[in-house]
Specification:
Length: about 250
Amino acid sequence: MWQWFHKLGSPKWFFGIATRFMPWLLAGGILLLAAGLIWGLAFAPEDHRQGNSYRIIFIHVPSAFLAQSIYISMAVAAVVTLVWRMKLADVFVKAIAPVGLIFTFLSLFTGAVWGKPTWGTWWVWDARLTSMLILLFLYGGVIALDRAINDEKSAARAVAVLVLVGVVNIPIIKYSVDWWNTLHQPATFKLTEKPTMPMEMWLPLLLSVLGLYLLFGWLTCIRMKTEILIREQRTRWVRELVMAGGK
């Protein structure tokens, strides 16, 4: 196990592994996401209360899941950066922070579009919405802090500390609908409870979530490989890779 852990910290080893897995992540992600969206948007039954406006859930919920999951994975990488000083963990944080920012914005935007016909307004200072907005600012802060510090090692440590401070917001997002009286509906999926939606609704939603996670994995590999090439451009293996045509 520890041997695998140390291998994962090798930019060269990760570059090769990521290259092999990327086609499978891309193909699986496209197939699952397309199946979920087509099923959900075109064939899932109409909701008896919200009508067809609920169909934005097939974009909103996967985006919200990714926004939170990405930050949690950044927090894990931040611990690895501070404890083991593994530079690939810092590469991971730097590569996925902009992706997390995009998914958080998409979650807020689709939530506003959904909220207009449901609540009668684009925005309310609801506990769930406010904590998601804070998450957006946290992603922006991580990106800005990383770019503001020129020294690579100092930037990695500072970003890791900020990420770990901000991770306290994740349980607030998750449990806000339980701790406070909010307009936002309870969680769509719970591991300990049966889905409240019929299978014709939650199954395409699940496919959309899984597909988006796979596409996120593919995008992460691309961004990490790019960052690795920039950081390791003077190493022998990168020069050999470039001479061989990048394969």
